[in-house]
Amino acid sequence: MRNMKRYLSSILGLMLIFSLIGCSSISENSKKTVLSRPAESNQSTTKKAHQPIKNTISVDNKKSTYGNLKVHYINVGQADSILIEQGSSSMLIDAGNNEDSNTVKNYISEQGITKLDYIVGTHPHEDHIGGLDYVIKSFQVGKIYMPKVTSNTKTFQDVVSAIKAKGMKVTLPIVEQTFKVGSATATILAPNSSGYEDLNNYSIVIRVTFGNNSFMFDGDAEDISENEMLSKGFDVSADVIKIGHHGSNSSTSQAFLDKVNPKYAVISVGKGNSYGHPHKSTMEKLQDKGIKVYRTDESGTIVATSNGNDITFNVKPGSYTYNGTGTVVSKLNTSSKNVVNIPITKTKISSNVNIKKVYFTQKGKSYHYDKNCSTLKRSKTILEGSKQEAISSGHTDPCNICAGGN
Ligand SMILES: [Zn+2]
Ligand SMILES: [Zn+2]
Q: Which ligand is the nearest neighbour of the Cα of 153?
């Protein structure tokens, strides 16, 4: 059996090598798109009538007026949380798991921030919005962007409650809409449709430009969303990409990576995580293109600083080692089985594709693997979520009948 596996993986390896060779003409094309970057940034300058005034000021004293753009990829283990600062403005993209609430809040406070101009909850998975309720409670908040999709997890409900308690409303992302974070420009590039099978594809994808530098923040967007951005002809080129879905093989398609054509890739991923992130195929694509990789599992919090022309990092690049080698086919099978997405109506949606779902009730102390477990029969409202979510909200006992408790 093992020999068979080895045999298969060597064939897969060969196929990959051939496909990489076959792609050399594509990377030629991608170089062309990079050349067109200055023209595109000119376009965006002409679109905004007020910008030229700012530009004339910047010529005199660019450094003091503009300062730097700082992007903090906060180490939250197997999760995402990114703080972006420019001038006196800031944006937080995701806030890690529930258990990262303090880490994220303290990190933001340590930067001297009391107001977050923008908060983006890329999609309703716990590893992205877990700490969001605490952050919303802890800071002044300008706008909160979240995609038009709901989840019945406690984590999601907590975020909604925190927003309501502040008397705020969620702003839905509109693709191609731009907003300013200081003098940096953020553009929303996804999601481009609804009714996705996988919650990950609802991820709000944002591209931030600052002077001649650009950054892509991909949330957990998978190949489906990547293809939509490409087919819409969006400018996805970036010096730094936050690799989609923690380096999973469901994201970072070759065509997308070629178009983004980054110098640097950041992977937010937990050490020794059980999901096989980052995946072999992702790491090989990055290595093949000579893209420097920074990863939170190796370096902790990663800070990229741009002065508008050059980008520096607080740590040395990491390795191309990977954690998973599973095939795409098996992943597609599981995602279509476990996930039901209803875009507008508030119907049940599973919490996390990759994490085994558990079921629990508001008042009960147990968690269940089986939604139809006999002990749940009398409960009207059954909540679902990851085991971590269940435990962190006081449902610490595995059910004797369905979850191997005793
Ligand atoms: Zn995630
Ligand atoms: Zn996700």
A: 2
The string over 6-28, giving b where at least 16 C-beta atoms fall within 10 Å of a residue's C-beta and e elsewhere, is: eeeeeeeeeeeeeeeeebeeeee
**Terminal Cα distance for the chain, rounded:** 35
Q: What is the mean pLDDT of residues 77-81?
A: 98
CB atoms within 10 A of CB 175: 17
* Whether residue 178 has pLDDT greater than 80: yes
Average pLDDT over residues 220-247: 98
Residues with CB under 5 A from ligand 1 (ion): 127, 220
CA–centroid distance, 246 to ligand 2, in Å, is 9
Which tokens is 306 given? 């741009």
| Distance from Cα 117 to the centre of ligand 2, integer Å | 24
Ligand sitting nearest the alpha carbon of 127: 1
- Amino acid residing at 137: K
CB–CB of 269/277 below 8 Å? yes
How many secondary structure helices (H) and strands (E) does the chain include?
14, 19
Task: Name the amino acid, one letter, at 92.
Answer: L
Q: What is the pLDDT of residues 5-39, one digit of tens each?
A: 555 454 444 444 333 333 333 333 333 333 333 33
User: Which ligand is nearest the CA of 202, by number?
Assistant: 2
3-state secondary structure 85-98: EECCEEEEECCCCH
- CA 99 to centroid of ligand 1, rounded, Å: 15
pTM over 0.90: no
| pLDDT of the residue at 387 | 74
Q: Could you tell me the pLDDT band of residue 405, with boundaries at 50, 70 and 90?
A: low
